[in-house]
């Protein structure tokens, strides 16, 4: 993950985009990119969406990457360790939704 974060930072900094990447704007960008991902599946049923994802893997992958890049940047500038946040949330969800 560290190498990926470094590549994202370099890409951003080489273009002097850091000044645009604050928590509010990154959160908005995540939402916008997630909407673009959702748009690919809009109006498709469960089976159709599964087939679409398989047949349009590159398009789906690009939208997923856009969401992930902005999410990683948001974590980076806020000092949140994404892997730790996920671990913490899974533990919390495990207590909230225990196995029966």
Q: What does this molecule look like?
A:
This protein has 100 residues and is an all-alpha fold. It has 5 helices and no strands. Helix 2 packs antiparallel against helix 4. The chain starts with a helix and ends with a helix. 5% of the residues are buried. The model has no long low-confidence stretch (mean pLDDT 97).
Short description:
The longest helix is centred in the C-terminal third of the chain and has 22 residues, at 57-78. With 100 residues, this protein is mostly helical.
Entry keywords:
mainly alpha, single chain, globular, 100 residues
Estimate what percentage of residues fall within beta strands.
under 5%
Coarse structural class: mainly alpha
What number is the mean pLDDT? 97
Order of SSEs, N→C? HHHHH
Please work out how many helical segments DSSP would assign: 5
Label the overall shape. globular
How would you characterize the largest beta sheet?
none
Number of strands: 0
Percent of residues in helices: over 70%
How far apart lie the N and C ends?
35 Å
Rg calc: 16 Å
Given as residue ranges, the uncertain stretches (5+ residues, pLDDT < 50) are none
